[in-house]
């Protein structure tokens, strides 16, 4: 087999959203799994909507996700001459023709077809125009270019790695527009021609492109250009069952980054969609690549879950090594040290959760309303008893057990009534790490200072 080449070809008209992320990831995985190349190509021929800021944003997001590309960034606009040459070749073979039908005429044709129970395909009205008449009218009439794909016999076969060969009868296909009335190309020709120019061997994309693939296979065959193998996977849906897209409220990668999501959490959730055989221990992008098998990618629609993504975020956070963990914690608590970060690591779902334990670093931190209620319910007598017991202890490695037993005997409190007020006083939180670890972290002076602060607050 020749070298496998895949590509990610976004339009720079917006930010990278979850559907785009999945397309990029699957093409990256396929190329890397087979030792091939992964290309980044911007389809920037929509000049009104394409913006340089989106090119940079998409590159930044791919870098954040760890999806590196091979070679220089490619731009569809650089191949404009080849697109025009391809159109000219098709026209010379009478495999592309001008259509002068107005929008009003096309709308009327669609209504007429619907009234007869027929699909709303183009009627073929302009297909039989003589070349001389077509060229003459083109000098003063608006027109588009179409491919004469629709006919009574014949078929187009789309080679698909996931589905096998997909057969399209030509009588079920339309005569698609490949050049708009303003002279700009639609998606079909430049996308297919660029794949041939860039030696792309495999194209992974959603099954909503299946009919596009049929037109592109037809087009490439008539241009004597190589046809790639396709892998049409099932669409990514939202919870409501609608296609997940930026129009339907899909997250952008930039938004998730701002929310503090770890990029590997997004990768984990994405790779495992419709791909259940990946080991739970594959926690790196390289490990995911080793387990990835395109044959297991789902050909049916699958639903996206933010909850799954954030669950992976929590698991990865709990497994971060000390240095990486501290970097995350310090984004929210710059004064934190490694021992603090490691102590609270298992109690965080997101890095900002460390703010709940700020009192462990600053005894003067204000309490939440719920924590203050617990403290007030315990009252000054409880905290004075706790402080006296703490001051009267002989220090050893069992400080917590000895101390809590003394408080229990002095107050008669047990269970939550005993432990919760102490946790609130020392950490400011209602839940958290083991109390023995907290006491060890704060030390003799730290515990005393927080009890004294609590007595003062209640007073």
Report on this structure.
The chain is mainly alpha-helical and 459 residues long. It folds into four domains: 1-69 and 190-319, Rossmann fold, CATH 3.40.50; 81-179, Glutamyl-tRNA Synthetase, domain 3, CATH 3.90.800.10; 322-353, no CATH class; 369-458, Orthogonal Bundle (Arc Repressor Mutant, subunit A), CATH 1.10.10.350. The chain is 46% helix and 9% strand. It has a three-stranded parallel sheet with strand order 1-2-3, covered by helices on one side. Strands 4-5-8 form a three-stranded antiparallel sheet, with helices on one face. The protein has a two-stranded antiparallel ribbon with strand order 6-7. The termini are far apart. The mean pLDDT is 93.
Kindly list the characteristics that best describe this protein.
459 residues; 17 helices; Glutamyl-tRNA Synthetase, domain 3; Rossmann fold; three-stranded antiparallel beta sheet; mainly alpha
Q: Which residues sit in consecutive blocks of at least 5 with pLDDT less than 50?
A: none
What is the domain total for the residues? Answer: 4
CATH architecture of the largest domain: 3-Layer(aba) Sandwich
Q: Order of SSEs, N→C?
A: EHEHEHEHHEEEEHEHEEHHHEHHHHHHH
In what order do the strands lie side by side in the largest sheet?
1-2-3
Write down the overall mean pLDDT: 93
